[in-house]
Amino acid sequence: MFESLSERLGGVFDRLTKQGALTEADVDTALREVRVALLEADVSLPVARDFIKAVKGKATGQAVTKSVTPGQQVVKIVHDELVRTLTGEGEPDALKIDNPPATILMVGLQGSGKTTTTAKLAKRLKEKNGKKVLLASLDTQRPAAMEQLAILAGQIGVDSLPIVKGESAVQIAKRAKMQANLGGYDVVFLDTAGRLHIDDVLMDEVQAVRDIAQPRETMLVVDGLTGQDAVNVATEFNAKVGISGVVLTRMDGDGRGGAALSMRAVTGKPIRFVGLGEKMDALDAFEPERIAGRILGMGDIVALVEKARETFEAEQAERMAKRFAKGLFNMNDLKAQLDQMLKMGGMQGVMGMLPGMGKMAKAAEQAGFDDKMLRRQIAIINSMTKKERANPDMLQASRKKRIAAGAGVEVAELNRLLKQHKQMADMMKKLGKGGMMKQAVKAMM
Ligand code: GDP
After folding, report:
1. Which residue minimizes the CA distance to atom 2 of ligand 1?
2. Closest ligand 1 atom to the C-alpha of 277?
């Protein structure tokens, strides 16, 4: 489904990963090409722009991991960013069907694949979840559409609401609910009428049905081949009737795939399923990891970088444990600790993990111990030379002035950090001497 985008990106990254060392200009050029590829795949301009910005920010702040090339790291960053762009909250394929009978409202334009998708979802709930499902067509304008749903219901072996001529959509919705209650159904699908374009009459009708039916889910079906239009349709439906998710159909075709990438960012609503053909089981849950893998087609490199990073982190942890066991603790060690804290979600994150620390975390924040302080402390250590970090005792007034200015802080803050470091180093020394640290480290490993 993403062939052309995938091919374009493949070309860019093949060139990038073949190079040993990358300059910033190399990365810039590659990202410019990625941006063009995204736009050509019909990804919306703001989404493409944000995407490139995020990748660039992460690529420049990245610690270089041994055993992979910078190019490979960039591939991994792009992959992670693709996943992030595609991901919504919650589980995509878990339709809310508690409190039976649960109503699922199906909305969308005519020809988008709404009726087909209704039957596909019904089949899935019946076979995967063992649910008793009722289908009802509300398309009073097109008798053929009503019959089509009844035929599909027969094919997949679920019930459909008997067709009664002359009823309004709201009347059918009421009858469907009653039937679902009486018949002990778990789920009732309401397949609303589609129009060729969004118009007020259609929206009024859908709103009236929604108010009567009180659906647990309102699923919008849009044609994935229509690219940017699919995103616009979703934006409008969401504004007018409120949708809980999107099903993107015809993703088996050779569409440019941009709709999939823009949908979440532009509408705020996740893609929950993708339609992959006309058959009743041609429906997949939307899995960002898998889709990102398909777009990029570089699964090996992504796995390689993940592995390298794990190894790198394990090696670093071991190196530090060894130093601590000897009672050693210099500025580099302190910086590694601060970095680690930030990575774990900052002060609040670290304290939040400890039971009963919620209040303390608040108090600490009020006292000025927050992530900004962590970042300032890291900046201070970054302004020190290698020698100074290894041996902070050598810091005299002029050096302190230079370091504080470099980090944009007062000397007093530097002094506080030095004191903090000294206390920690003293403690390490004591623990190291008594062999206690060795035992503690052993117990932790
Ligand atoms: P509705 O007017 O929105 O209810 O659309 P239909 O459900 O009648 O679908 C219109 C046409 O699109 C039918 O021929 C379907 O078989 C076809 N269709 C629906 N979903 C898909 C899909 O995911 N892939 C492909 N290739 N065709 C689909």
Report:
1. 111
2. 24
- At a CB cut-off of 8 Å and minimum separation 6, what does 31 contact? 52, 55, 56, 59
Which of the listed residues 1, 115, 116, 251 should we mutate to test ligand 1's pocket, taking the one with most ligand atoms within 8 A of CB? 116
Which position has the token pair 């009672």? 327
pLDDT digits (tens, 9 = 90+) for 120-139: 999 999 999 999 999 999 99
Both 84 and 108 in a single domain? no
Question: Of all protein residues, whose CA lies closest to atom 19 belonging to ligand 1?
Answer: 113
Give the chain's mean pLDDT.
84
Interval 67-94: pLDDT, tens: 677 777 888 888 888 888 888 776 667 8
On whether both 164 and 250 belong to a single domain, the answer is: yes
* 276 and 283 Cβ atoms separated by less than 8 Å: yes
Q: How far apart are CA 304 and CA 306, in angstroms?
A: 5
CB-defined site of ligand 1, < 6 Å: 108, 110-116, 194, 249-250, 252-253, 275-278, 282
pTM score, whole prediction: 0.70
Q: Where are the beta strands (DSSP E) in 43-132?
A: 102-108
418: CATH: 1.10.260.30
Same domain, 17 and 51: yes
Q: Ligand 1 atom closest to Cα of 274?
A: 23
Which atom number of ligand 1 is nearest to the Cα of residue 251? 23
Inside any domain, residue 229: yes
Tell me the one-letter amino acid at 41: A
Q: What is the pLDDT of residues 3-60, one digit of tens each?
A: 778 888 888 877 777 766 667 787 888 888 888 888 888 888 888 999 899 888 887 7
Look up the domain containing 426 and give its range.
Answer: 326-444
Q: How many CA atoms lie within 13 A of 299 on its CB side?
A: 5
The question of ipTM being above 0.90 is answered as yes
Domain assignment present for 317: no
Q: Which two structure tokens, joined as six digits, stand for 359?
A: 């209040």
Count: domains in the chain: 3
Q: How remote is the CA of residue 279 from the centroid of ligand 1, in Å? A: 9
